[in-house]
Amino acid sequence: MNQKRFVRRAAITVGVAAAAVFVAAGCKNDGHFSLFGYDTRPPFDSNIRSVYLPLFKVNAYHTNPYRNIDVDINEAIARELNQRHSPIKVVSDPAGADTELIGTVANIYKNQLNRNQFNLLREFDVMITVEIVWRDLRTGKVLTSSRGPVAPLPVSPFDTTLPAAPPPPPPTGAIPLTIYGFGRVLPELGESNTTGEQAAINSLARQIVNQMEKPW
């Protein structure tokens, strides 16, 4: 009986020692843990420490409750970076920034999904479309992935006398990345346009910060 207890204790001791060796092998000097390709450090480029974030330009027609949407989007991006413990800090002066994030609100749309027997809205989505360009101010390199060039229109098959369409001109400058944010609203639960707008803005902020992470 004593021998079995001794063997059990020895096995536990060996297991604890092995776990300690594993932890020690994975620990980094910065307090984070890395093992078998997995890392607890935030997935951001450590060479990028700051971003200049001017207010988004609003090209979409907007009225209440969508006023100040540019301010709300900027605040949501800064909050998302902070919540993810990103080393990238938002700064107010481009002269001292490593990068710059330029954005445009291209569209604000309410998609009606469901009505009740009194023709009142029961469910709808607030959809916000933005276009962003994230650029390294030190090198001029565009860091966001962009769309490909627009394909030329095909020649009409009904009129073979038409000449082939000329190729489109090469894009000038950075091609922005389009991102869509959605916010579901259920008025019967007391939710409103403001609820959907904030949900859509939070969705945009998450996707924008995703673009600022290092690629896998």
Automatic annotation (TrEMBL):
PROSITE patterns xrefs: PROKAR_LIPOPROTEIN (PS51257)
Keyword line: Signal
A GO CC term assigned to this protein in UniProt: outer membrane
Signal peptide: 1-25
Coiled-coil ranges per UniProt: none
Transmembrane helix is among the record's keywords: no
Lineage: superkingdom: Bacteria
InterPro entries hit by this protein: LPS_assembly_LptE (IPR007485)
UniProt-listed GO biological process terms: Gram-negative-bacterium-type cell outer membrane assembly
Protein name, UniProt field: Lipoprotein
